Amino acid sequence: MSIDQTATHEIYARRKGRNVAVLLILLAFVTLIFAVTIVKMQNGASMEAFDHAIRPSILPQVSE
Question: Is pTM, for the whole model, over 0.85?
Answer without folding.
Answer: no
